[in-house]
């Protein structure tokens, strides 16, 4: 029989991992909102690719511009996720 603490530790780890993932996504979103408050920021308007992170600028005319992709980066896994300031710098190139 498993000890009583094992299940609780697992549940705590799952909750902590979900909060960390939410915090990372929140950092990107907040950095973009601070730089261009007039632009709507959506997280995953379509199903994301597995195992990495992509940032796209969707224009009103329906076209898109890739600001960052981690598809061909890594290992380690942390290289597959961008720094918020790097994404903001690329966004500035596409804004008038």
TrEMBL record:
The keyword Cell division does not apply. The keyword tRNA-binding does not apply. It comes from the Eukaryota. One of its GO terms (cellular component) is Golgi apparatus. Keywords: Acetylation, Redox-active center. Coiled coil: none annotated. May be involved in a redox-related process. Belongs to the SelWTH family. NCBIfam families: CXXU_selWTH. This is Selenoprotein H. It comes from Myotis brandtii.
């Amino acid at each position: 029989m498993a000890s009583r603490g094992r299940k609780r530790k697992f549940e705590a780890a799952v909750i902590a991992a979900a909060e960390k993932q939410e915090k990372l996504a929140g950092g990107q979103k907040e950095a973009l909102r601070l730089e261009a408050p007039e632009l709507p920021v959506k997280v995953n308007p379509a199903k994301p690719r597995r195992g990495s992170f992509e940032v796209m600028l969707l224009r009103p005319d329906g076209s898109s511009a890739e600001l960052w992709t981690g598809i061909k980066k890594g290992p380690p896994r942390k290289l597959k996720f961008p720094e918020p300031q790097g994404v903001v710098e690329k966004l500035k190139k596409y804004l008038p």
